[in-house]
Amino acid sequence: MFHRAVGSRSRGQTLVEFALILPVFLLVLMGIMDLGRAVYYSSTLSNAARETARRGIVDQTCANLLSHADQRTVGMANVIVDIEWLGAATETFIGDCPLVGLETQAGIADVLHVTLDYDYTAATPIIGNLVGTIHLHAESKFPVEATCVDDATPANCPAGE
User: SS3 for 160?
Assistant: First the structure.
């Protein structure tokens, strides 16, 4: 009989310990998942900046570049895209295209600078309150290889893929 009473107490103790540890375990697990999402979004942003800049070195049409950046950041709402051209020698500002239709005729060897910014918020409310919003930033620079801003004759523009 004495053995039975100790076993009964042991099961109750295990249940209480489990109830105390479970929330902490779930919080750590969700934190790891949110950290993984943040790393994934950071990698996606970096790749999108690089791929958009690679396209922009042969096609300077703003609508194409903004669309390309948007396609590469699927699942990320409110990504801020900034595209500007800098002079080849001194990297002084030549022009930008924050709005569709403001294409700049960049010359060969001018530098295309693509910047993407995104504010990441954790999916778990508790983790989100603990760490707040994380600002993710990616940028890429490449020298212009071909000049093309003519949407009407895409056959004249090299493919930027």
Answer: coil
How many CB atoms are closer than 10 A to CB 85? 23
Half-sphere exposure of 13 (CA within 13 A, CB side): 6
Compute the distance between CA of residue 2 and CA of residue 48 in angstroms, rounded to an integer.
68
Model confidence at 85, pLDDT cuts 50, 70, 90, reads confident
DSSP state of 157: S
Query: Residue 83: is it exposed, middle or buried by C-beta count within 10 angstroms (0-12/13-18/19+)?
Result: buried
157: region left, alpha or beta (phi > 0 left; psi from -120 to 50 alpha): beta
Contact residues for 78 (Cβ-Cβ < 8 A; gap 6+) = 118, 119
pLDDT band of residue 100 (cuts 50, 70, 90) is: very low
DSSP 91-153: --EEEE-SSTT----PPTTPEEEEEEEEEE--SSHHHHHHH--EEEEEEEEEE--S----SS-
- What pTM does this model have? 0.77
Query: Are residues 142 and 53 in contact, defined by beta-carbon separation less than 8 angstroms?
Result: yes
